[in-house]
Amino acid sequence: MDAKTLSANFEAREKAANELRALTEEHAGKDMDASAREKETQLLDAIADYDGRVKRGVEAIKASESVSSLMAGLKGTGSKRETQDKLAEAATQLRSLGLYEAATFAPEKRAVDTTTGKNVIPRTLFGQLLAEAAQRSTVMRNGASILTTSGGESIDFTVVTGRASAGIVAENANIPESAPTTVIRSMGAFKYAYATAVSTEFVQDQALDLVGFLVGDAGPALGHGMGTHFLTGTGSGQPKGILGAATPATATWAAGAKDNTVSNALIDLFYELNPAYRSNAVFVVSDKTAATLRKLTDANGQYLWQSALTAGAPDTFNGRPVATDVAVPDDKVLFADLSKYKVRLAGPLRVERSVDAKFQSDQIVYRFIQRADGLLTDQLSAKVLTVTPKP
């Protein structure tokens, strides 16, 4: 039983208890008729049933960890007890927020496990929410560089648009200067916000995993909002997405083209990307384009698409991982080293609580605010193929 179902059972039990209380008060000092007795029996049975469900639900939650902690634990090492203490502290803070008060959760600065080379378990609400958000963002999930700053002031970055070159120089001859071609671009901070409403009972009941529920609700919402812009953002009032910043490829195919034409264009796209980036590059496509890629075969009838043999590993096309995202247009194929896309998280995650917004329904509203921006810092690291005309 998940936290949402458990909360529903709590609310249903409370409703039945209130009805029983009202029935008892209505017949105080006088005998109940047959209809009232029958209703009393039904309410008592319902309360007993809900008590059993709640007990089983609480035991199940106590015996398991939140999804975020479990996923993080599989990737690294860390103190389970310390993680639980940190999250319990965050839950207490979220429950006790007063009127016009806000809580902030900053990125956790921790060392990398020197044995495995992996990050240790995220112990804070910020770390767990970021992990959930990253799972919903194709760019973040596939290797984008994440920069955290204390504020949201503009930061200038030197974006590489062309490489320097070296040549043979005769003895005693002057060495010609060669510098990469660059432009200066700025990263700011756009405000991403999400609000969710939960019942007062859900917040008050200490047995429920408030942090796990809010992380599982807000993390995907923030991740989807940011992730879409990191791919297709225009740069005007939102981050500049990698699709718009990538260098257009000369390779293409016409809508409705046969298998060989499509596969040859994709091979051309692969070799258009500078060799320095190919070994870390990923194909990013829409689901419709992915379906087209899965059907392509070589001269021997072997599929160029290879499904992953182990859980969690990506499928590959022509030896490189493939990621799909609903935000990618059907006429685009991105082939890029996503580590050259920089994601900036500006300032702490801000969480605020309101008991007024949903006063009539006795609900508490939590809102999450995180400022972020994104920028491709090396234009040579990404190529985008455009199908003509758009299918």
Automatic annotation (TrEMBL):
Protein name as catalogued: Phage capsid protein
Ranges in coiled-coil conformation: none
Principal subcellular localisation of the protein: virion
Membrane spanning stretches: none
NCBIfam families referenced in this protein's UniProt entry, alphabetically: major_cap_HK97 (TIGR01554)
Organism: Streptomyces violascens
Span of the signal peptide: none
Residues in Phage capsid-like C-terminal domain copies: 117-386
Cited InterPro entries: Phage_capsid, Phage_capsid-like_C
Highest taxon listed in the record's lineage: Bacteria
Cross-referenced Pfam families: Phage_capsid (PF05065)
Cellular compartment(s): Virion
